[in-house]
Amino acid sequence: xxxxxxxxxxxxxxxxxxxxxxxxxxxxxxxxxxxxxxxxxxxxxxxxxxxxxxxxxxxxxxxxxxxxxxxxxxxxxxxxxxxxxxxxxxxxxxxxxxxxxxxxxxxxxxxxxxxxxxxxxxxxxxxxxxxxxxxxxxxxxxxxxxxxxxxxxxxxxxxxxxxxxxxxxxxxxxxxxxxxxxxxxxxxx
Length: 189
Hints:
Layout: E1 11-20, H1 27-33, E2 37-38, E3 47-51, E4 56-60, E5 65-71, H2 74-90, E6 102-111, H3 118-125, E7 130-131, E8 139-143, E9 150-154, E10 158-164, H4 167-183
Antiparallel strand pairs: 1-5, 1-6, 2-3, 3-4, 4-5, 6-10, 7-8, 8-9, 9-10
């Protein structure tokens, strides 16, 4: 049997960060000037700028607001935004200095190391903090009272933790869930 813990199995799958510049952007002109962009205002009001290294997608809005998604770390998201800001500067747009970047959401995958009885977990956790409708979605959604973090539990033992802004929040969440499941006798420890 492996000595790894659920915390050891956590890996960041996606980081969403936001930033912006203090001016409006001409998205039509940017779409014409920058090859890595997609812009269809009939379908979505933002311009999509895909960076290659690292692979990420930056949504740019007319207001100057930007959202970067698809990065595997906050550092990758910052590098993708640096690429976008360098492109803006090369086009003569005053993008300012180093942007203020805020981590909005982090999606972290993990593994509990064994199968789960989600019906028993739903009953044991109580109805106030969970959503479990297996006919609609194959996972149990566990919400914390005092946090924006949400843990999705699957019968396979896989977990997805979202809503936090750091890996430490994900580690704390998986520890709480593991302890709750252990207290309910639903994990072999």
